[in-house]
Amino acid sequence: MARIFEPAQDRAITRKFSKEKFLKNAQRGIKQNLGNHTDTLDGMQVNFADDSFYGIVESY
Predict the structure, then answer these.
(1) Nearest 5°: phi and psi at 12?
(2) How many angstroms separate the CA atoms of 8 and 10, rounded?
């Protein structure tokens, strides 16, 4: 599975969304669903609970 996040500085289970990596690695359907949101999400922190594959953007 492609990685679309960059490591954040504060916690191991927090990542920052990378628009560049998302556009390079995400599947076409995911790109279509989130395409209008990538500018807003770029650089936002994504929190993962208990090594979950799915993350949550708290402030979006």
Answers:
(1) -70, -25
(2) 6
Query: Residue 41 burial (CB < 10 Å; 0-12/13-18/19+)?
Result: middle
Tokens standing for residue 16: 């920052």
- Average pLDDT, integer, range 18-34: 93
Q: CA-CA distances (angstroms) from residue 23 to 12, 20, 34, 36, 57?
A: 24, 5, 10, 12, 18
Mean pLDDT of 25-53: 89
Candidates 21, 13, 23; CA nearest to 45 is 13
Q: Where are the alpha helices (DSSP H) in 1-60?
A: 19-25, 28-34, 38-41
Q: Taking the complete model, does pTM exceed 0.70, yes or no?
A: no
